[in-house]
Amino acid sequence: MLASSASSPPDSPRRRKRRKASRDRRSAPAWKSGSETLAWWVFSALLLLSPLLMGGARAFGVVTIAVGALLCLLLLLPNLPALRLARGSTLFFAALLSAFVWTGLQILPLPCDWVGAVSPTSHLHQLRSSWLLDNRPPSFCSLSYDSAATREEWLKLSTALAVFAGALVFARRGHRRAIVQLVAGSALLMALVGLAHRALGAERLFGLYLPQHAKPPLLTPLLNPNHLAGLLLLGSTLWLGLSVSRQSSERRPLFIAAALLCFGATLATQSRAGIAALGFAASAFLLMVLLRGRQRGEAVKLPQLLLLSTMGALGLGAVLYAALEPLREEVERADLSKLELISLAADFCHRAPWVGVGRGAFSSAFVAHWGTRFRMRYPENIALQWVSEWGLPFTLLFFALNVWAFLHLLRTRTSAMQ
Q1: Fewer Cβ close by (within 10 Å): the C or N end of the chain?
Q2: In sequence order, what are the residues at sequence separation of 6 or more whose Cβ sits closer than 8 angstroms to the Cβ of residue 322?
Q3: pLDDT per residue over 23-77, tens digit each?
Q4: How far is 162 from 75, CA to CA, in rounded Å?
Q5: Reduced to 3 states, what is the DSSP secondary structure of residue 361?
Q6: Cβ distance 150 to 103 under 8 Å?
């Protein structure tokens, strides 16, 4: 026995790598049917390419994304009854489902007397509109000031609900890590698109569309710098999370490079809120990595930490040098106009405090209240937008469900991908 062991060839790195690849193939989740395989490809396309369709801001983008999400949901329908959810996922799903149901109720035709009892301003607005168009009172009314806008938001919520359900199914199939990589890849793709437009000096999006009312510092299909910075920041933190995973040792440099690229693109957006969140996210990530190593009893590898810090400092320093001057000019010419708009939006919330003016109907309701001298499309504050469009009771419920789900996830153990 000893002789045979001594005469056996040494275990080479190539042989160990081959055995590891074989184990990974055996442990990889297998598809149960062709419909599930097709659903995965549709789902992957939705996560990766949806932001490129103008972020769903145009009708063609909303319809395309909704059709893809509906197709994915129909293909996965046989798997939904057997799906078992963790409590955190259940709470997030309940929050999204409640938003879908409440927004649907806001566009439901109801007797006008009922609407007048809970939302007198919406009832009066629809009475005046009906008299102007038909010269007679309507038989039915809705809680929303603008039913068309609320229907569009309801379609967006139904799309989000279908994609979330698909994510739950595929996560239970063992594709959690792949889902995270798709979301991070979507942000990376957006960063590459923006940096390519800047490098080429392009003023038209994909050489076709010339923005009329926005001149974003980084031209991408997401024309709002804050929205773009949010997506890029999400992608950069996901890439960093993937880079410290035990399963990413061979691809760690690529993941770190993707994270730095998304970080640099975030700075190039010149979004003050995005850049502030960037610093917070980087600090929180470093703290979490150090705490996790301490809990596991692992010694911090100083050379690797110094190398990562140096790479990050050099990459972010180069982008900061390029973005500091326009960012300084942006801060110097900033005024308090947004605070004034937020004040107007806060004063507007009392118009329909219990049921809201309808999801997506803030702009129409604002014009009906303040006149046409100027028009606000959004309240410039997410909390005020929820309260004004959904009403205070549902906003508190929606917020409580999300906070409960988030706190529950913080108490749970490290996810399977770590």
Answers
A1: N
A2: 268
A3: 544 444 555 667 888 989 999 999 998 888 877 677 888 889 999 999 998 988 8
A4: 11
A5: coil
A6: yes
Inter-residue contact 100 to 77 (CB < 8 Å)? no
Residue in the block written with tokens 């139904």: 158
Integer Cα distance of 394 and 98 in angstroms: 9
Q: What is the DSSP string of 377-392?
A: SS-SSHHHHHHHHH-H
Question: b or e along 307-323 (b: 16 or more beta carbons within 10 Å of the residue's beta carbon)?
Answer: ebeeebeebbeebeeeb
Whole-angstrom distance, CA of residue 163 vs CA of residue 2: 58
SS (H, E, C) 223-272: CCHHHHHHHHHHHHHHHHHHHCCHHHCCCHHHHHHHHHHHHHHHHHCCCH
141 has which bridge partners? 110
Two tokens, residue 236: 């950069």
- At residue 15, φ and ψ (nearest 5 deg) are -70, -40
Residues 6+ apart with CB under 8 A from 275: 229, 266, 267, 327
Distance of alpha carbon 35 from alpha carbon 76, whole angstroms = 8
Q: Integer distance in angstroms from the first to the last C-alpha of the chain?
A: 40
